[in-house]
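Recap quiz, item 2
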Amino acid sequence: MAATDTTVEIPEITAHSVEREPRGWLSWVTTTDHKRIGILYLVTTFAFFILGGVEALLMRVQLGAPDNTFLTPSTYNALFTLHGTTMIFLFVVPIMAGFGNYFLPLMIGARDMAFPKLNALSYWLLLAGGIVFYVSLFFHPPEAGWTSYAPLSSSAFAENAGMDAWIFLIHLTGISSLLGAINFYATIANMRAPGMGWGRLPLFVWTLLVYAVLLILALPVIAGAVTLLLADRHFGTGFFDQSQGGDPLLWQHLFWFFGHPEVYIMILPGFGIVSEVLPVFARKPIFGYKAIAAATVVIAFLGLLVWAHHMFATPSPTVVLVFFMISSFLIAIPTGVKIFNWVATLWRGTVEFKTPLIFAVGFISVFLIGGITGVFLAVFPVDWQLHDTYFVVAHLHYVLVGGSVFAIFAGIYYWFPKMSGRMLSERLGKWSFAFMYVGLNVTFLIQHSIGLDGMPRRIYEYPDVGNLALYNLISTIGSFMLALGVGLTVVNVVRSMKRGVVAGPDPWKGNTLEWFTPSPPPQNNFDVIPRVRSVEPMKDIRRQVARQSEAHVEVGAESR
Amino acid sequence: MRAALAAHRLRHPRRVFAVTLAAGVVALLVLATGASADLLTPPSGGSPQADSIDTLYKIILAVAAIVFFGVEGVLLYSLVKFRVRRDAVPAQIRGNTRLEIGWTIGAAVILVVLSVVTFVMLDDIRNPPNSDASGFPTQRIANAQDATAYQPRPPSGRALNIKVNGQRYIWRYTYPDNDDNILNNAFSYDEMVVPTRTTVTLDIEAQDVVHSWWIPELGGKADAVPGHTNYLWFKIPRPGVYRGQCAELCGRNHADMVARVRAVEPAEFARWMAEKKRDIQAANRLAQERRAELAESPGATQEASDTP
């Protein structure tokens, strides 16, 4: 450096491995590196996603024709229980923790999580929960649905140990998530780069913060509930048994007091990913940063007050129904604000149609449907017709597949270059999106009509009346298109790991600090942690580099 | 020339938006009112509150359609219009407080409107009307002990009350009358027979696990929860059969737990009830005779003392 005039050094990526990366399987088992744990999370949860998907396909085959005998009633009930539980507890919630583990420290300019060993424990507890649950396949899988309503889940009606495997899954994954949440919170609160105030926190980190707080608030409730269930099943208590002075509705209240925040736990980090991806590919700052961050907090708060909208058909006084209708309506406002802000982020930008952006935009367009059908279900008289029908199945899949899964895929395509050092194939990515998008809509749009046609959920067969046979066949065909789309991304990831184009540190010209490291980042992430001066530190850095290199070339002071 | 003008007009963003919106709403309304009733709207036609729910649903659907086509329209427009081009420069806008407050209030207003509409229609859905004069003559029904629970009662207080009991995997219906011994009341399984033009109130209970009573064309569903009583009503104008099934997972044969409501003319219902009562009385008489026979026969006492 000619170092006579410069007061500020040119920022450059100076991180490099001090030691050689450890290799071999033992290094993965013993790792406390947040990036490796993140990859363990991502790979494990994706494997569970595939499992849950296969379970869904089996169910769709059974429902492809009326009065089908492909599956027995007990297998079918086991399948939807496995499917729901897997997708929620072993895929969507922990995969968000996977992204969080990998990118949270990088995005806030930290060298690891606050508690690296605790972080490793979180992962191993998750894996243990998944194994304990799936081992039930070898004796007797649970059949009471992912909601495990009492008394159906009591020892009188579910005497086999599958139900207990479910309880242990809830406990193990619950502790895993709780430890992870505390870790996230501590890391965000204490380990941000110099200059990164709350107003400069990347939006994905904002959503992880709220995700962590919601987990801390909601998980103890379900942990308590399943402990009561365990005591009812084995120690002769009667918390959910009306004949002993208990109440089956107590289970429903406890379950949904956890269950509804869980929905936001699953979708908020997805909102965060979309809020990161859109501005990068529109080349425009996020529209209304503060509004989006505030909406996240408001959604989380209201999310704690809407649980009984899952119970509109239970015996309830009108005033209770009205309260939960209004609170559910209120939550639509901040959600709507987010959607408007995302659309406004694209407005007057220069939108580059790379796969991450396409998934993010696909997310907005289908999540909107899930949001709107949510308003239908919030109106309790209408819910009396729609509750527990395929309309609800359609609604929740638009939220969780159209919402969470599309956001997750946007995240995979956006961050894969950082994690592997190689680009994913754009062509395969776009085909994957096309199949997933069409597949999602073919599968689930018609399910609204299946529900309106009077078909309840969780039934293993249906008679050939009305249009049910046709509608269900359409849905089944769609589910295989969706699966094909997911499969293409798996192929893409496997192929690109070795053969992808080398990405370099910042292939997308990102806004946040993870792009200020080599790809993949070294163990210590950053040798020098840059000072943060805005929400888009990488933009500042790029600008500074450009300015100063220019100054160097011209050897003088051409100020901006 | 005219075509060029039209094309020019269409290029205007607001016009494209408005045209898309209008076309979408019209298409949806045509579909909604068309023959394919089950494609877009819930079942109705069996009871007044099912029709009210259907109307409420259609109002929400219309509002939803406007929001849906509006947002998707703007999204699609901005993707097409603002896709990356060689000379395009992205506008570095970070927000617009007025706009943001505007759409927050806009969203709130829509929801206030939907709340008000729901409140206006709620009375018709929740509270049953009186039976018609030509309906089945019914008695005044007493309120349950639990005063906080909601119980639908017509203004006259008179309705045909039926107790519905969910059991794995069948529904039992009991028709209470003046006989205090519930075993002497008329009852049936699977098929509930009710008179037309008469307000019917249901007290819904469950014997084992949670079930949900649902006959789509007769209005919404009501969960049957052990230890609780749930309430529902319907009033069927014309004779007919209405089918439904249990809507809450209750075990392996949940899919086969079907229910049927057969509405018949009041006179026929009276005959059906009388026949049911006669059957029960006959069965009681028969049982009494058998008991008497057993008591008289030698060894009866011996037998009785043998059984613990």
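The first strand of chain B starts at residue 160 and ends at 167.
The longest helix of chain B spans residues 48-81.
End of item.
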